[in-house]
Design a protein that fits this description.
227 residues; 6 helices; 6-stranded mixed beta sheet; 21% strand; alpha/beta; two-stranded antiparallel sheet; disordered C terminus; Aminopeptidase
Length: 227
């Protein structure tokens, strides 16, 4: 059976943050069994919680990448007020924020990497992920970029690293708020914990299948996917 190692990151600063709880749920034995059934591969998912910090988020994730040596890295971000999952197409080489991070740091507007490209495309197969979400009734949409806060900075650092690590697929998906009881009679906003966990499983499964297709075409260098 083929083996895949996957890292899923969430943010550690708020205990009820959907990114942290979803990341941890994806490291469960139940998720592993589900992924193995869907992909016919042995899948090990390693959750890692990183601080919501411009200075510390990427070093924390990088340390886990260097230890685990995964083929896939999925970063979970949060998009408050969104109706569903946001699948971000690109990471911008830009920091610009009107509020500080968890360290109380508010960097001046500027690039993430002084000599880096203006943006990187995701390496997640967003088209097929979106189709899988539709099949399983997970609300989602494509997003042009991830903004200019810590989520985007983490995404950009990951893609900058993956530019030289050609066998690594990765990217960012942003989760909405938890679904709450709505007294208006309208459909409540946000998603449930089970929907977010299912979304994470589908992202991992579709990326594994995509990785295998790329490896079959070129066993050395998977192509970037921008759809």
């Amino acid at each position: 059976m083929r083996e895949f190692s996957v890292i899923v990151s969430g943010f550690s600063d708020t205990p009820d943050d959907p990114t942290s709880q979803t990341a941890l749920s994806l490291g469960s034995a139940e998720t592993q069994a589900w992924l193995e059934q869907e992909t016919q591969a042995h899948v090990q998912v390693t959750p890692v919680l990183v601080p919501l910090s411009f200075d510390k988020a990427w070093p924390t994730l990088l340390a886990t990448i260097e230890e685990v040596q995964p083929q896939i890295v999925v970063c979970l971000g949060r998009r408050r007020g969104a109706p569903g999952i946001a699948l971000d197409r690109s990471a911008r080489n830009r920091i610009e924020t009107n509020h500080p991070d968890a360290d109380g740091t508010q960097p001046l507007p500027g690039p993430i990497e002084a000599n880096g490209p203006a943006a990187y495309w995701t390496r997640l197969p967003l088209g097929r992920i979106l189709n899988a979400f539709a099949t399983h009734n997970v609300p989602a949409s494509l997003s042009s970029d991830a903004g200019t806060y810590v989520c985007n900075a983490l995404f950009y650092h990951l893609m900058h690293y993956a530019h030289d690590a050609h066998n690594l697929l990765g990217g960012l998906i942003c989760l909405p708020d938890w679904r709450t009881t709505d007294q208006s009679g309208l459909d409540p906003a946000g998603l449930t914990a089970s929907q977010m966990s299912l979304a994470g499983r589908l992202v991992i499964a579709q990326t594994i299948l995509f990785h295998e297709e790329l490896s079959a075409m070129n066993p050395l260098v998977p192509q970037q996917n921008t759809h």
